[in-house]
Amino acid sequence: MKKWISAFVLCLLIPAVVVGGALLFSAKRYAWISLCVACLACLPVFLRLERGQSGARRLILIAAMTALSVLGRILFTPLPGFKPVTALVILTALTFGGEAGFLTGALSAVVSNFWFGQGPWTPFQMFSWGFMGLIAGWLSAPLKRSRLLLALCGALSGALYSLLMDVWTVLWADGGFRLSRYLAVLVTSAPFTLVYAASNVVFLLLFGKPITKILERMQTKYGL
Amino acid sequence: MKAFAGLHPAVTMTYFVLLLTVCMFLPHPVLQGQALVCGALTCALLCRRGAARDVGFYLPLFLLVAVTNPLFSHNGVTPLFFLNGNPVTLEALLYGLSLAAMVVGVLLWCKAYNEVMTSDKFLYLFGAVTPKLSLVLSMALRFLPAYRRQARRVSRAQKAMGLYAGSSMVCRVKNRLRVLAAMVTWSLENAMETAASMKARGYGSGKRRTHFSLFRFRPADGAFFAALLLLAAAPLAAAAAGALNFTYYPRLSQLQTTPAAWVAYAAYGLFLLLPAMWEAKEALVWRCCKRKI
């Protein structure tokens, strides 16, 4: 049943929104369509949480990790772009699986935006951070083994976050996707992309081992 | 003095969803201009503090979006002048203005949304549909202030131990990292205790859960709800009937002056002014009440 819902959303609903939106609005309102797609993409994992048999411990664990990554975003407010959110999402995913990583990432976006301001970009941030957690969960075995791979993953996800959010900026500011504008935005946001990537590497290298150790201890101590 | 924030969350949520839908679905210059002006007015009414700083943010953003569009887009048939051999057209400039009005308008209304739809209302609305997700969200929101307090305590303790020696960038980052690392263990142990306590008190044994904030749907909410549905229906119906089509490229189309279009403009204007009118009405009632004392 759960799988059917996910498959339905991913294979039917999202393409239907894209095609239907393009037909209805003559391909002018990409920003709105992509917003709907970002929301829908988050739906399967949320549904699994809702329907699943996860007990209070797992729910509270996700809430605590979410609050921690938001705290990180708030603690590092003076340094623009230098945020431990992605690193914490990846570390959560490594120990507790991709689904927990996705939820931590997506909910961090919602919760932190109660402080930093909700807007049409919230679903995009939810999807971007959540997606990174999901990928890190899939690749958890090799990532746990090598620190180099972990650092590489951090750098790549920092860059990916920037690339995804820039797509959003272009769609939002132009009403449609224009490559020249995208390249211009990429150039202007390059310093931020670098800071994202560098901060992820720094956080993962400094933080990776001790935090994974703490999380794994929690796992054995409380049987999560 | 926020009468609009006192309405039932379902009413305010419907209002904002409809408003943002019209803002993003109907790119019509008249509607966009109305949304921009009324958005600024509502923001000024709802959130008085920091108005000057907001102008300093939204005005440059407006100009940035408006000016950059004609530099990247060379569609349109009326060239104003040539830049590096590329035409800067009137149509692209006006399209840029319309995009800027939409972007800034939506941002202003989002700001009003943030002011009115606080997290407890959000959770009240979605708690019935997605109980587990809402639980996680509300727990995270509840943890945050506690964690911030604890983080401050940890950093004070570390300062007392002489760990905050330097004031360079690297030192500051290192210090914050140390605080965050200390927080991880503390918060997770704390969370597990919370979970045990919840289990002991029978979490998950009942079917329906109650809320922290209780909202009652009063007659005033019903009146506001009916008004907003009626007023929002006019522009949506007009757009569905094709009375609000407007294109910028290749040539500007004429602005509609048919009766249907006028009704749509007027209804949308009233719709956008609903929060402001509600505030004014409450202020008047309050004044009358005060006079009677």
What does this structure look like?
The complex is a heterodimer of chains A (224) and B (293). By secondary structure, chain A is mainly α. Chain A has one domain (55-222): Arp2/3 complex 21 kDa subunit ARPC3. Helix content of chain A is 85%, strand content 0%. Chain A contains 10 helices and no strands. Chain A has helices at 2-24, 30-51, 56-75, 85-96, 98-116, 122-138, 140-145, 147-174, 179-188, 190-222. Chain A starts with a helix and ends with a helix. In chain A, 47% of the residues are buried. The mean pLDDT of chain A is 83. Chain B is mostly helical. Chain B has 2 domains: 4-122 and 218-292, no CATH class; 130-200. Chain B has helices at 9-25, 29-46, 51-72, 90-116, 119-127, 131-160, 169-200, 219-240, 259-292; strands at residues 79-83, 86-89. Chain B has a two-stranded antiparallel sheet. The longest helix of chain B is centred in the last third of the chain and has 34 residues, at 259-292. Chain B is globular, with a radius of gyration of 26 Å. The model of chain B has no long low-confidence stretch (mean pLDDT 85).
What features would you highlight for this structure?
heterodimer; A: 224 residues; mainly alpha; Arp2/3 complex 21 kDa subunit ARPC3; 10 helices; 85% helix; globular; B: 293 residues; 3% strand
Count the domains of chain B: 2
Q: Could you please say which CATH topology of chain A applies here?
A: Arp2/3 complex 21 kDa subunit ARPC3
SSE-based structural type of chain A: mainly alpha
Mean of all residue-level pLDDT scores of chain B: 85
The best one-word shape of chain B is globular
Helical residue percent band of chain B: over 70%
Which sequence of SSEs, written as H and E, runs from N to C of chain A?
A: HHHHHHHHHH
Order of helices and strands of chain B: HHHEEHHHHHH
State the end-to-end CA separation of chain A.
24 Å
Number of strands of chain B: 2
- Basic shape of chain A: globular
Oligomerization state of this entry? Answer: heterodimer
The helix-and-strand class of chain B reads mainly alpha
How many DSSP helices of chain A? Answer: 10
Low-confidence stretches of chain B: none
Radius of gyration of CA atoms of chain A, rounded to a whole number? 18 Å
Strand share of the residues of chain B? under 5%
Question: How many domain regions of chain A?
Answer: 1
